Amino acid sequence: MTVLVFVESPDDELSQQALTFARGLGDEVHAVLMGPAPAPPDGLGAYGVSVAHVAAGFAAYAPAAWAQAIVELVERTSPAAVVGPGTDRGNEVLAHLAAKTDQPMAANCVSLAEGDPPTVTRVRWGGSLLEEARLHGSPMLLTVAPHAVAAKAVAPQAAAGTVGAPATVSVEEFIPTVADADLLARVSERAGAVASGVSLTDADVVVSGGRGVGSAEGFAVIEELAELLGGAVGCSRAVTSAGWRPHTDQVGQTGTKISPEIYIACGISGATQHMAGCKGAKKLLAINPDGEASIFASADYAVIGDLHDIVPAISAEIRKARSA
Amino acid sequence: MNVLVCVKRVPLTGGKIVLTEDERAISTRHLGFTISPHEECGAEEAVRLVEGHGGTSTVLTLGPPEAEEQLRDMMAIGVGRAVHLLTDGGEWDPQATAAAIVEAIRAEPEPYDLILFGNESADAGNYQVAIRVAHALGLPCVTAVKGLSVEGANVRCEQEVPAGRDVYVVPMPAVLTVKEGLNLPRYPSVPGRLRAKRKPVAASTPERPEPRLEMVRLVLQPGSGKKAEVLGRGPDAAPAVVGILRELGLV
Ligand SMILES: Cc1cc2nc3c(=O)[nH]c(=O)nc-3n(C[C@H](O)[C@H](O)[C@H](O)COP(=O)(O)OP(=O)(O)OC[C@H]3O[C@@H](n4cnc5c(N)ncnc54)[C@H](O)[C@@H]3O)c2cc1C
Ligand SMILES: Nc1ncnc2c1ncn2[C@@H]1O[C@H](COP(=O)(O)O)[C@@H](O)[C@H]1O
User: What is the pLDDT of residue A167?
Assistant: First the structure.
């Protein structure tokens, strides 16, 4: 049974996670790679890939066209499943594939149980809830939720020819036939990022403010603490909706997902949609006068009280410790 | 120009999710309802596009009779009219949802120049209804749009990617999915709310096909099991906080 995996790039961790997930579904894993200059797929053998199909001829990302390339492969190799990473592009390309082949598609799966039909477990509400669903389709089309499985290379000692053995990748280049209509939506230009300070995604420390901050000016104390700790400023949706901070600062289901060493949440109640964005934080410190606030149910440390007193006191204490 | 925006009614859960007894839905006994922030931005954009270019904005939902509340909410911020595809409140899978929306769009008296969706629905997060609709209508589709401008017969879309912003320029009619941050939606005014009450809602009842992504049950995420260590009350807790930061090597 062959499983075909859409790989964004051989060194992309989420694609490696999708490959690891796929090894649990079939005994032969094929990869498909695309793009203006797909990286050499040799390293994929470590993830159990025996054949890497490389679609040539794409000048830029064009989701419908990339899906069309996979349609060709599906017709040629009849895989039991097509799997992608649960990334923007992974979900998008698989959805186009599903639309083109009129098959159901399950996005952001964490596991799959065999059966007729098989049952997937997938995330809902940005990860706050799971769903079990029967997938009535052939081939099975699914994406793997980020970090649902760890990316694992195959055991190097496994006997050659058995499942789980590192494979020599045979690379098969092909030029898909793509209709003009599938190329209408394509990336025509890459505008540069405006780099400004520590990015929320990569920060080791994030200091966030919620409605409890009270105003845009109130964020001065949050900014001060973040700067002292070399961290980034975050916020809740109550804050962006009020126009106190830009949406780029929003942590949560419809904001940024963060994974700092410590998350300091000030004046945030802990709505599930906010918590969906900071699950990856190693430690959570919450500052809130309401001892019953639901954020304390996921916090490691709590300080009860008014952030306007507490946050400046923490900053002062840091300065004191550093000058000692 | 004619702009359609599709929205989905979902429960507004607070700090904790509770399931119904049959585990097939979120218990909403104490909850209000809303739509995804992405879709709110879609509705705001539809209103702005029509303000800038003329034409009509329409909001569409597939949902129970109560979802009229969400249609009125969007008309209160300025959307011109509504289409309500009525259900009995049961789960519709993404293929069935897309098929019903496609049929409704085909039945409309005038074609749409832009059809806007949320990047993903708040509850199900299937990441596909818009793409299926685009495919069925033979239209180009750009997802995760965070910047949008109409340039003649084309629409220029910007998407945030780790390395910067990807630009797409597609001819209209087109299907776009948008993300929160595209704009800052306005709050409804009192006159806006009153006007919304009188705006037309075209209702019909599509038939639900057999689901092919068939929800069996919902499962709560296991709790963190954490018990927060209270470092103190008020500013006196600062030294204890710095103690923690020192352990982490930050001070
Ligand atoms: C589909 C969907 C997606 C969403 N996505 C997001 C998202 O990405 N991110 C997000 O944040 N939200 C999101 N939300 C909104 C979310 O449901 C909450 O409304 C929001 O997180 C609340 O923000 P808040 O905690 O700042 O405000 P509130 O819930 O109002 O809480 C304010 C807190 O501040 C405390 N407080 C008050 N005064 C002080 C003071 N002086 N000092 C310290 N504390 C004080 C209060 O005790 C309270 O706990 C989403 C909602 C939906 C429906
Ligand atoms: N029941 C529905 N009624 C109207 N629009 C919907 C419905 N379900 C999904 N959509 C639209 O499709 C988008 C993507 O949904 P999904 O594919 O479930 O992530 C949503 O943001 C909505 O714009």
Answer: 63
